[in-house]
Structures are given as C-alpha cells and as structure tokens.
Amino acid sequence: MIAVHSALSVFSLNSQNYISLAKREAKVEQNLSAGAFQKFADSGELITGVTVSLAFYFDDQRKLNVDGTAKTKARIICFRCNQSIMLDLCSEISSILVFSEEEAVKATKVGEHLRKELVVVSKNEPDMVDIVEDELLLSLPQSVEQLEFLGHKCGSGKNASKGETGLIERQFPFAGLRDKIEASKE
Q1: Which of 20, 42, 52, 87: CA 20 to 30 A from 8?
Q2: Can you tell me the distance from the alpha carbon of 95 to that of 154, in angstroms, rounded to the nearest whole number?
Q3: Does residue 121 contact residue 133 with C-beta atoms inside 8 Å?
Q4: How far from 156 is each of 80, 82, 165, CA to CA, in Å?
Q5: What is the pTM of this model?
Q6: Which among 45, 33, 37, 42 has a CA at the least distance from the CA of 86?
C-alpha cells in the first residue's frame, strides 16, 4: 500500500518525482517487499517487509531533504557463536538527496554532509529502497558487544569445557616471549 499525503490531497506516488514531492512537502507511507532489498541479503534476512514513513521538503538552501523512519524485523547470525538472532530494526532517516556523484562531491566540499547524510539517487522517480536500504544496513549491530547490549547471550562460552573456559575469557599469546628475550640476552 502506498499513501502519499500533502497539505492539500492524497495522490499516487507513481505520477510523482522527488522534486514534486518536496514542493508539496509530501509525506509518504509505504510497505516495501523484503525481496526489494538486494544488498541486505549479504548481511542478514528481512523477515517482514519494510514499513517506510518519509517526509520530503526543500530546506533554506533549496536542497532536497527527506526525513523519516524505516521499520522491519530481521534475522542475523551472531559473529561469535553463529546463533540466529531476531532483531526489530528501526532506522531514522535524515538525508539530503542528490542526483549524481558530482553533486555529492560538491555537497561534501561545501560541508553539507556534516549536518545530514547524502544519498545519491539514480533517477528522479521515487524509489524508497534507494533511500532506505543503506540506513537499514547501518542500523545492524556491528559487534558482539552491540548484540549483548540488545540482549543476546552468546552461546560460545556455554559449550566450553572447564579447561577451555580460562582460555576463552583471557588469552596471552605472547606470555612466553619475555622469558625468551631475557634468556637470549644472557
């Protein structure tokens, strides 16, 4: 379902482009199929579609902005124990849209990238996947510590024998090096 709301009316996303959406200060609400996110498959699996709510507008410098959220459920594999983990992902989106790499480079030189993310869109016809997919990928946990913060209890220490527990907790790979150096000096 696609719903586009502006101050005046509800209209179809198919007949619009990013510029017309921003001129109308339109808000777009859309459910996107999990299969539309091709890059996400390298990092995890989308369990549900992605619910997107975006607002398009021009800022004071007449730059095309988009703000909103993207929500979904995903499954990833723990970096340490290879256990499957279910996550509720919610990405906050606050970006400036540009239509070419040259525009992105120019915006970077001006310093616009310091206040918002830059998203290069391939064409002027709205494609919510272009805007949302990288933000969803960036919202994935990047370390075991982040997974633990989200409540994942890693199973790697649970299966270790008592003798291996000490090795898992703390390893000293160069422990004998000092003794060898001292012995070589004598």
Answers
A1: 52
A2: 35
A3: no
A4: 7, 9, 10
A5: 0.70
A6: 45
Q: How far is CA 168 from CA 54, 78, 121, 164, 172, in A?
A: 45, 17, 46, 6, 11
Work out the burial of residue 16: count CB atoms within 10 Å of its CB; fewer than 13 is exposed, 13-18 middle, 19 or more buried: buried
- Cite the DSSP H helix spans in the chain: 18-23, 101-110, 128-138, 144-149, 162-169, 177-185
Q: Is 122 strand, coil or helix? A: coil
Give residue 94's domain range: 2-185
Taking the C-alpha atoms of residue 62 and residue 184, their distance in angstroms, rounded to an integer, is 70
Asked whether 48 and 72 are in contact (CB, 8 A), the reply is: yes
Total domains in the chain come to 1
Q: What is d(CA 90, CA 93) in angstroms, rounded to the nearest whole number?
A: 10
Name residue 146's amino acid: Q
The answer to whether the beta carbons of residues 21 and 121 sit under 8 Å apart is no
